[in-house]
Amino acid sequence: MLDDLFSAARADGPVPSGDLMARIMADAEAQIAVAQAAPVPARRRGWRAALAALGGWGAVAGLGAATFAGLSIGIYMPDPLNDLAQNVLGTPYWDYSTIDMTASFYDLAEEG
Known about the structure:
Blueprint: H1 2-11, H2 18-37, H3 47-54, H4 57-75, H5 79-89, H6 96-101, H7 105-108
């Protein structure tokens, strides 16, 4: 029953008048002319392009804060985080097997 009603509704679709179609086409041609006449903005170069690609000053500030937090937690690991790692892994984080496999910041910063 519903299928018959839907098919009848599809067959009797509204048809736009010729006047409406002429106004739509005239408006479209006017917009094409405006778009072709508009000047193309200059491309950004250098650090401004990189800043825009990252999302602006707010995004760069967030990335800086996340970088600082990650480095500070990675270099100066707080004791509660060490306890959490011990509970999850079953061994202390500063176990010899973990220390021997990873290079510390101070190993990478040595001169020579």
